[in-house]
Sequence to fold (316 residues):
Amino acid sequence: MSSLNKNQSIGIDIGGTNISIGAVDKFGGIIEQWSLKMKDCPTIEIFQNKIEECIGDYVRKHKAEILGIGVGAPNGNFYSGTIDFAPNLPWKGQIPLSFILSKQFDRRVVLTNDANAAAIGEMIYGAAKGMKDFVMITLGTGVGSGFVANGELIYGHDGFAGELGHTTAIRDGRPCNCGKKGCLETYTSATGIVRTVHEFLARDNSPSSLRDIETITSKDIHNAALKGDALALEIFDYTGKILGQSLADAVAITSPKAFILFGGLAGAKEFIFEPTIRHMEANLLQIWKGKIRVIPSELKESDAAVLGASALAWER
Ligand SMILES: [Zn+2]
Fold:
């Protein structure tokens, strides 16, 4: 058997829109990669069939030696191995995913929150290499976060630590999928910023190229900003203000060296980074001003969580 076949782990990143799967070697090389749409996996049974087609076939074909499986999922609980009441997934209630997959593949399975998995990926292979204190923020369908302090991921007493996306950014603000109001996620996720567009467009009749788009995405807002659209720029400033204020609050708790922004909205680069940093700085205590970096992920978007999830399988 070639060395390629030995010492691999499978990383699975479950998101509200996409599911990414990778077979990864010990050095973080992704040997094989698959992608599924969440809308094609409405139930756990269908998901099991789909990943059997990817992983099962791969293992049989290449006689791959899979040592373990790591999973990053929204509301993934590190201790229980369950996905608990994830608002952005079609799988409702409490899903014992580690148990299900370990039976299906006869391998050890480690599961954690998707943002925690991305944080581990960034710590081992990306922008947080060598950092002991940082926060990973994922700005995708929702807003996830993984807090690393003193070199370790914080899981909390129940496995759920690090939910900055569901802290209150605006009191009695927008309703959130989680049932609360004004969560950070309702303003600074890729879907949240689209809600801002609709709010701002309804406010008055000021001209904007965004008025001509039927189904607006965060990418459209970025494109409009690139062309100097005033409304798009105002929307990024507003979004960066809310995000920056929340980051300043988070600094007061764990004093990280850096925030690493990742996911759809982070793709807007300076349009989101500049206002976020400016408003964070304005809200930091004097002792932290100018000391905290806000930087983009150094891993390809689809890779960070898959690499992190696969690394989980090595760790344990
Ligand atoms: Zn919420």
Q: What stands out?
A: The CA atoms of residues 183 and 271 lie 22 Å apart. The mean pLDDT is 93.
